[in-house]
Amino acid sequence: MHIGREKMKTDKEFEFALDRLRGLTVAVVYIFEGENAEGFAHYHVWKSDVISGWLKAIQNLGCRPFILDVRTFAEKAFANTLPHIDFVINLNCGSCTLSPMAIVPATCAFLGIPCIPCDCTAILSGENKLHSNILAAASGIPVPREVDTGDNNGIFRPLNWGSSLGVKVGSIRNDILGIYQEFIPGFDVTTPILFDPSSESFLFLPSILYVPDAQDTRWFFGEKAKDTKVGYTRQIIHGITNCLREKYLHLLKEINVQTYCRIDARIRSDTFDKAYSLPLAPLSEENLYFIEINTMPTISLANSFGFSYRSIDIHDECYIYLEKLKKRYKEIDVYTFLLVSSMVTLLKPCTKENGIEPTALDECSL
Fold it and tell me: What is each CA distance from 346 to 97, 115, 130, 187, 196, in whole angstroms?
């Protein structure tokens, strides 16, 4: 899954990989809101608060930031006028169609630059809800059954859009491409996942259960709730059963997730009382249905990834790894946590061809 990257065998090698990050150049490629290319329409762009979080993380790691918009990045890449770049953080989100979302990782692949968080394969297979549902089912994860668009107990999700934009419960009549499935009464739950290069394994952060204030099992975490951030509370679920873990990991392998992602699901329940018992046990496959996988999740201090990160405690499998990084980085936050993990995961092997001095090569072999 992580072909061509540095393999960690000991804590010393991991520490050496962290040392190698200092002084590297990390490009932050964002969407210029004035971009008017015909095929580059966006329903959402990440604002300065998200971009500044990544810039602070770059600083925390002792790296050098290089900020530019998508068009400038692509033009300079093919004109061969880019300065040396070691990593790219892709902030080209919210495209109305999937193909333009792949322009940054595709350009990175052409240049041989690691792209965070994912490559084109993960975007095109994961962000397309039809494809991801097919892959989830093949991984053994239950998915809601398809229903006719005239079924009032259905839910429509646009094929490529995120942030629950355009999601509608009930019969539909529109020309937007999407999937129409049975609406599952119950609760939304999301699970952030991160690859830990020191253990060569994916780690599951605490899952988040969304509990509606109205105590209505037909409520879902939709566009309005995400925009206003009212009408619900977030409850933490620590841990995940081995059975569900293996199914989620199989899906990650099929989609080629390499660094981090988030899986959204729905837990079936006809009564609200289950909201009180779900946080008391690890997340399980019982009554769980796959909704989508986000291979380019928005990262902020306030959203699901940030909330999950702040909820990590000794009961979570990622606790030991996080504590190891806290000893190294005193100002670590969710951005730094994801960035350092992703950079070490995608770090090129320690070879002369990659510009590592012989003394460092000797240390790599320890």
Answer: 27, 8, 28, 35, 11
